Amino acid sequence: MAIxxxxxxxxxxxxxxxxxxxxxxxYVCGVTVYNKAHIGHAMFALVFDILRRYLTYRxxxxxxxxxxxxxxxxxxxxxxxxxxxxxxxxxxxxxxxxAQIAALNILPATVNPRATQEMPQIIRMIEGLIExxxxxxxxxxDVYFRVNKDEDYGRLSGRKxxxxxxxxxxxIEEAKESPLDFALWKAAKAGEPFWESPWSQGRxxxxxxxxxxxLSHLGEQIxxxxxxxxxxxxxxxxxxxxxxxxxxxxxxxxxxxxxMLQFGGEKMSKSLGNLVTIEEFLTKHDGDVLRMMVLNSGYxxxxxxxxxVVEQTERALDRLKSALRPALPGAKGLGExxxxxxxxxxxxxxxxxxxxxxxxxxTSGGLAALFELVRAINQARAxxxxxxxxxxxxxxxxxxxxxxGLRLITDEGKPQAAAPFIELLIEIRAxxxxxxxxxxxDLIRNRLTELGVTLEDSKEGTGWRYQE
RNA sequence: GGCGACGUGGCCAAGUGGCAAGGCAAGGGUCUGCAAAACCCUGAUCGUGGGUUCGAAUCUCACCGUCGCCUCCA
Length: 468
Fold this sequence. Notes:
By secondary structure, the protein is of the alpha/beta class. The protein folds into three domains: 17-282, HUPs (Rossmann fold), CATH 3.40.50.620; 321-409, Up-down Bundle (Four Helix Bundle (Hemerythrin (Met), subunit A)); 413-466, no CATH class. The chain is built from 15 helices and 15 strands. It has helices at residues 39-57, 73-82, 86-103, 119-131, 161-167, 206-217, 232-247, 278-284, 287-296, 307-322, 336-358, 363-382, 387-404, 419-434, 438-450; strands at residues 4-7, 12-15, 23-32, 61-69, 135-137, 143-145, 182-187, 202-204, 222-228, 252-258, 261-263, 266-267, 303-305, 453-458, 461-466. The strands form five sheets. The protein has a four-stranded parallel β-sheet, sandwiched between helices. It has a four-stranded antiparallel β-sheet with strand order 5-6-7-8. It is elongated and about 95 Å long. The mean pLDDT is 92. The chain binds one RNA strand of 74 nucleotides through strand 3, helix 1, helix 5, strand 9 and helix 7.
């Protein structure tokens, strides 16, 4: 079995083969830290966390680099508005984002480089591009990339230079040779932070930092380059232009782009202002819920975010967890046939999970495989499986859930201090039920429900659990 | 205007040439004193109209609709 990944460059699913056997070099464009992160940002982080976890599960050693853009116009503007130092502002949002990533159970990247910490590499790269004629310093202290010099410019996004020029609304910058040339280096205006360079006191353009970080943290050629599909043009197009012009080698083998989170029919974005921050989401919902939403659909398609969808997803997550509940009180055991049926379903689910995930990370299909396993486990439990008989299936569910990055937190994580008292109430209620004191029995049950404890009666006794 | 993607049951969403996964909701049933949970059963011919093919949700053309990029953007 082989893994296939869709690459934006070829617009096809391609067989996944790494440069170095068994090792994956993955670069993902991170966020510009000028504001609170929203759940659209969480989506990209979740998608590439899932990709990374899956590749690891399939035996690869994954080196994942995700950058922070910590100096740019928006950061500077925002800092000025707030009367803050731009570097402090950036650092605060980085700290906050990393905490939220952890709360979402996203593994920290192998490296989180930052633009401000890569200046020597960035400057070296710009110098190299100038030497080769791919870039030129302008009279205003900026340095621009000479787009016309790059013959296959536009091949990632499928654009032609002529088309862009005719319909373009790019402001004309006097210092540029051509309107489509983009900045590698920007001279600082008064009051802006700057670094020394051969051309001016200034800062790097947005695209060059990623090229430089790739080079210093992963090498000249990488396996996977990822990010949101809104970055295809111009950001990734420009990255390819810079990196390949500089090294003379093809840059990334697989260009992987996730779809946008849709909110109210539009892309959730900072500029549109239609956003739900990660912070807000996490005060209301478990992090697994957002992950489940991502898993339920194809990573390349837009993801619909509505309150209704969140609710549905929460229920679906409850169902997944339902399989992890303990055996019924007084379970008599399945017998040989039942044990084998459950084992067979486990194997089948695992196989179809891998088959789906191998096919361009079909998480929705993988999730379906988990639900098949859930049904089999619940069936077995209903048929009287003991704790020991359920254990293997449940362990597999946890194993595959962990490949998705789902925590599947159940009662075990919750405080058990109340347990003896709840059990006491159940005991008393059992006496009442014997005497058919239904009103009192129901009162106890209802009151406990209000307190977040669900009672479930069965022939063999009454079980209880915290509401999910 | 240019480039690209998408339109599958009430909702979310896989499938991309050979009898339409999965989840949520809904209805019926089993269990229960009643519940709850779980289990069992029930539903779509795939935006519209042509074309290719023995056969299409899947390929092709047109049209309608939605979204993304073309300017900072995960």
